[in-house]
Amino acid sequence: MAPSIRLSPAARSLFDEPLAIAVQGLGPRQQVTLRTSLRDETGELFQARARYQASDDGELDLARCPALPGGSFAGLEPMGLLWALQPQKPFWRLVKRDVQSPFLLQLEVFEGHGERPGRLLAQAQHERAFLRDGVRRVPVREGRIRATLFLPPGDGPFPGIIDLYGTGGGLPEYRACLLANHGFAVLALAFYSYEDLPKEMKEFHLEYFEEAVNYMLQHTQVEGPGIGLLGHSKGGDLCVSMASFLKGITATALINGSVANVGAALRYKDITIPPLGINRKRIKVGKSGIADIIDALNNPLEGPDQQSFIPLEKAECCFLFIVGQDDHNWKSEFFAVEGSKRLQAHGKEKPEIVCYPGAGHYIEPPFFPMCAASMHLLFGKPVMWGGEPKAHCKAQIDAWQQIQAFFRKHLTGKPSGTSSKL
């Protein structure tokens, strides 16, 4: 029997779902190297490889068989060949640009454990999709809003969420889309560097975000009375500002967000919140040329920088802070703790804070490979994001469950029974 790769699901799975990988038809205790390859929409190649030894019966099941040292990872890691994918081009991050097409994953089995691949024994292809069958993708161009709404299958209404990314700009849809697969109506909202929106992060007007909140609150497919906000990085402090000043927000989840306004002035009616000061002299650049910017921002508790602290005590919602304790973009844990102190000092409910040791800045949906360093648009050079790949991957899986449980609890009133795995 010739060796063959057995996948479950066989041909196609959703990107945030586990994929079972096994090889059958090998020789007893045969040594092989498994390699995965994936190209993003720009054609950039990501690869991972791992060394294995088949069992006595010639079977190799990644759920039961640990990877041996010498590859991209070692130990019992059934999904290691996905989360350990690394770009062949330096400082390149895996993002999904078109959620309507899947990523194509190539799997290959080679003979032996050499530095160069041995003879090819088996290969297979698998589609990693983003859009579940029946989920509707609706481009939204109403008033000033530039967004995409994802609606789950069925009649609805569904709990509604607005999803914001960070300083990368544009309109990333993949997290919103994956979340809609789980039963939420999710609006991926662009706020700069997209179509006719401002090209640069000079200042933001909260009236734009208010328009998006009202759009969701009035939508027949969105279950009231309030909606949720989900923001990563700069999107996090925008969500805190929205929750602090706008009506109709019930739950706000931040992934490595800030409780101070960062990067651009924020205006709403006659209020202006200045951006937190930056001292570029505190940026450390290593021999590799990669910058560590963790100390660049000023402390929002001191001096004039206190004006950049967002008055989150005005918010009428519950908060969830997801924190990567090895975030090198900024001090996410400090921001979460100070936000919690401020809320409690004003008699508000203590927020949920979930901390992940060994997780970096880009806590993405499950099985996205960790991005250790990439270009930072504001600093104009590659910066380190932090994180240790194995711990970061585990954090992404758990955070994804935490976020869904938080929104289910506060937007539908139904507990989901999810508890932290860490």
Automatic annotation (TrEMBL):
Note one Pfam family from the annotation.
Bile_Hydr_Trans
Residues of the active site are S233 (charge relay system), D327 (charge relay system), H361 (charge relay system)
Q: Which UniProt keywords apply?
A: Fatty acid metabolism, Lipid metabolism
Q: Does the keyword Lipid metabolism apply?
A: yes
Q: List the Gene3D superfamilies.
A: Acyl-CoA thioester hydrolase/BAAT N-terminal domain (2.60.40.2240), alpha/beta hydrolase (3.40.50.1820)
Residue ranges occupied by any Acyl-CoA thioester hydrolase/bile acid-CoA amino acid N-acetyltransferase domain in the UniProt entry: 16-142
Single GO BP term: fatty acid metabolic process
**Entry keyword annotation includes Lipid metabolism:** yes
GO molecular function ontology, one term from the record: fatty acyl-CoA hydrolase activity
**Where does the BAAT/Acyl-CoA thioester hydrolase C-terminal domain start and stop, copy by copy?**
205-412
Record-stated family: Belongs to the C/M/P thioester hydrolase family.
In Swiss-Prot or TrEMBL terms, this protein is called ACOT1 thioesterase
Q: Which source organism does the UniProt entry give?
A: Nicator chloris
The record's gene field reads Acot1_1
